[in-house]
Amino acid sequence: MSTVTIIIAGIIALGAVVASFISRPWAPAAAFIALAIAGSSDGADISGATLIFWMAAAVIVTIIVMTLPRTVARSTTGVAYIAGAALAGLFIGICISHAAIIIGTVTGAILGAIAYCRTPSGRALGFPGKKAVNYLCAKAFPIVITFCIAGELIAAVTMSI
Hints:
The protein has 7 helices and no strands. With 161 residues, it is mainly α. Helix 1 packs antiparallel against helix 2 (27-39), helix 2 (27-39) runs antiparallel to helix 3 and helix 5 (79-94) runs parallel beside helix 7 (130-160). The radius of gyration is 16 Å and the shape is elongated. The two termini are 15 Å apart. The model has no long low-confidence stretch (mean pLDDT 90).
């Protein structure tokens, strides 16, 4: 039964990661649901404190995304750069430690945002202006939370093997 539960959690987490690439507001909540499902099985060692921390982070970021102006919330400008670099940082972090998961993901998101702002279409954001920083934070924050939760799931499952 725990194998089926872990597979279901993995599919949900993968869906959340894919949803982050297309800027869906429900991605952090889906990632947390995957973590909670995995935590309820014997196949992953996830503490109650970890679940509470990531639940709070997912709720906060979901509320923030839902309160964004509709044009910002629906925009996917630069999201592929931010998400791609954050995913690379996540995988590097998974190889090191739990703390490195967060550090790698945040670093990747920042570097992805900077890379996008250096492209011809990214220059329209006017980086490092206030508008660009606000927009990039609105897009990077949900991606970072979603990827960190998915990374914690991966780490918990691989440590239990």
